[in-house]
Amino acid sequence: MKRWQRFKSSYFLYSFRRDPVAVSSFTVFFLLVAVAFLAPVIAPFNPYDTTIIDIMDAEIAPSWMEGGEDRFWLGTDIQGRDLFSTMLYGLRTSVIIGLGAVIFQAILGISVGLTSGYLGGRIDAFFMRIADIQFSIPYLIVAIITSAIFQLAFGVGRFEQMAMPLLIVIIGMSEWPKYARTVRASVLGEKNKEYVEAARVIGLNRRIIMFRHILPNTLTPVLVISTIQVAQAVMSEAALSFLGLGMPITKPSLGSLINAGFEYVFSGSWWITFFPGILLVVFTLVIILFGDWLRDVLNPKLYKG
Amino acid sequence: MDKSNHLLTIENLVKHFDISGGLLDQLSIEKGRVKRHRTIVKAVNDVSLFIKPGETLSVVGESGCGKSTLARTILGLYPPESGQVFYRGDRIDHLSSQQMLPYRTKMQMIFQDPYASLNPRMNVERILEEPVIFHNKSIRSDEVTEKVAEVMDLVGVDPKWSDRYPHEFSGGQRQRISIARALMVDPEFIVADEPVSALDVSIQAQILNLLMDAQEKRGLTYLLITHDLSVVEHVSTRVAVMYLGCLCELATVKELYNSPRHPYTKALLSAIPRLGVRQPKHIRLKGEVPTPINLPPGCVFHNRCTYADDRCIVEVPKLLELPSGTFVACHRVEEGRLD
Ligand SMILES: Nc1ncnc2c1ncn2[C@@H]1O[C@H](COP(=O)(O)OP(=O)(O)OP(=O)(O)O)[C@@H](O)[C@H]1O
Ligand code: SF4
Ligand SMILES: [Mg+2]
Q: Predicted ipTM?
């Protein structure tokens, strides 16, 4: 309760409420995530249920257009699935992969950055060189090789089942150095402060000092890059799916929907690509706008506590 | 020297910092040959002293002379290059952090900057209870709360502020909280590294009085680091004077202020105005303080000392106990040619 009181009177909330861009981008983001996770409740159809899909319904135009049907508000895709429902499920898939990849990056990157920065010396040099190497390999190459090997080794069917965790790991692996570097830089600034020496004089062990004392003081920049990283991960996933290396069309993400509809744009069924595309742009845009505001407000030079 | 009678003894303590950077920075080419060149800061050089139970030993010296480094090396925050540290006769400088734990409750530290010495993400209660719980895992939570309130009372911070964060307090109050954290584990020995120099003059006296009160109530022993000579005279039992990482003179306050022996101490004391005492002529030191990277040979003070002679340039003076109980490291004093 006290915390809530404190939060309510904080500078953070005050400047949030005064900034219309922050409020609207956060609201849209929140609504989209809510809608995505409530997809099974909200969506009129279940796009994963093959028994209700009728191929005869394929490529029906949005309901307000000629040839549109009231059943399908935004029309249907090439397999005859309701586009609106499929987009909701697709957004959910994209969000899960995006968040999952960012959590994966963050855990890996924060642990490495914290250890590297606090212990220094050879361990630091070792981890940072690995980070450099990791950073210089484009994730697309990693993704192509990994999925190719996986498909060869386990077969396409198994790949489709495993696509989601695999994408989380691939995208997560490619971006952890960003977290590691950010955290390491903050740790270098914090570790010589007197409160850390005080903790050492008390006799606390390294693990407690690193995680309980230093880590909380390095989280501000982590929070800021996390927003951008979520947007980035969603985009990466879309890019991979667009190249056919991502989610299978049976369990589409926004990217695979865009990909599937792309071939039909010129035959007139533009909506299959257009609506998922708009949704993707809006979703990443609000995250980036919110992240921008967050970076300004959490700037340590302006931060009022 | 009988170490077990002393609370703390240090013998020939040396602490160097290697600031040469990476291997590539260290290499240079001289006369067609690659040479590896290291840059070493000789922060503490061969310092020996002891601290008696219940006393306040002040360490004075100008900025960069190694006072803080000495304090941190004593507490095991920096591993010494050589030399020994004894706590009540037990050697502690080479212990692992696990073996060091029992001594961690006996020795504590108070820091200079009250804005950096408290973790900004922890409220006062967490800051204060952490050391107690860490050293006594079986303690009941009501005992902890009681202890926190007791110590906050002692240092003059209202216990009802215990859920506040450091940034909600003023510098003086933060320093009180910092003192409270040190007192939480019931230590015997406290190292205070310039505990008042970051505070307003009006607050300084309050904090010093708090430290003196706590000393009286709890029988504490202090190692007090400062560069404020008027504070030193007021609060200390004995004073150690450092210059460029070396100990010049160690004497009781009275001896030191009335009859300083070492040329550096003489110069230092001639700079402070004193009431009721015939002021000796202000001794103006010539030359610059050398850097601790290129330590002068012989006596580290020789390039600025008015009494320096040939011996001073080649031979390092040894710390010598005079009949008055004062320790001095100076050839002139040793030869009896300076009083
Ligand atoms: N961690 C470190 N790495 C490298 N050099 C250091 C380190 N700590 C201190 N030094 C150097 O050692 C010397 C002694 O520093 P120290 O902080 O002990 O001086 P001080 O007497 O406490 O000075 P002040 O009165 O300014 O606090 C200085 O030249 C300093 O630059
Ligand atoms: S040893 Fe020589 S140089 Fe050093 S203080 Fe004494 S007289 Fe001066
Ligand atoms: Mg210092």
A: 0.89
Residues of B in contact with A198 (CB under 8 A): 109, 111, 117-118, 178, 181
- Angle, CA B229 vertex, CA B228 and CA B233 arms, to 5°: 125
pLDDT, residue B86, reads 95
First to last CA, chain B: 26
User: Who's near A171: CB < 8 A, 6+ residues apart?
Assistant: A97, A101, A104, A105, A139, A143, A233, A236, A237, A240
Mean pLDDT of B119-123: 91
What domains, with CATH codes, occur in chain A?
Answer: 72-299 (1.10.3720.10)
**How far is the centre of ligand 3, averaged over its atoms, from the C-alpha of A2 (Å)?**
39
Tell me how far apart the terminal alpha carbons of chain A are, to the nearest angstrom.
18
* Closest alpha carbon within chain A to B193: A194
Transcribe B167-211 into DSSP letters: GGS-HHHHHHHHHHHHHTT--SEEEEESTTTTS-HHHHHHHHHHH
How many angstroms is it from B109 CA to the middle of ligand 2? 33
Residue type, B209: N
Low-confidence residues in chain A, pLDDT < 50: 303-305
pTM above 0.90, yes or no: no
CA distances from A144 to A65, A139, A154 (A): 40, 8, 15
Return the pLDDT at A305. 40
Residue A6 in tokens: 């404190």
Percent of chain B with pLDDT over 70: 96
Cα–Cα distance measured from residue A132 to residue A146, given in angstroms and rounded to the nearest whole number:
20
Q: pLDDT of A178-212, one tens digit each?
A: 999 999 999 999 999 999 999 999 999 999 999 99
Compute the nearest-CA separation of A12 from chain B (Å): 16
Name the token pair of A54: 């009728």
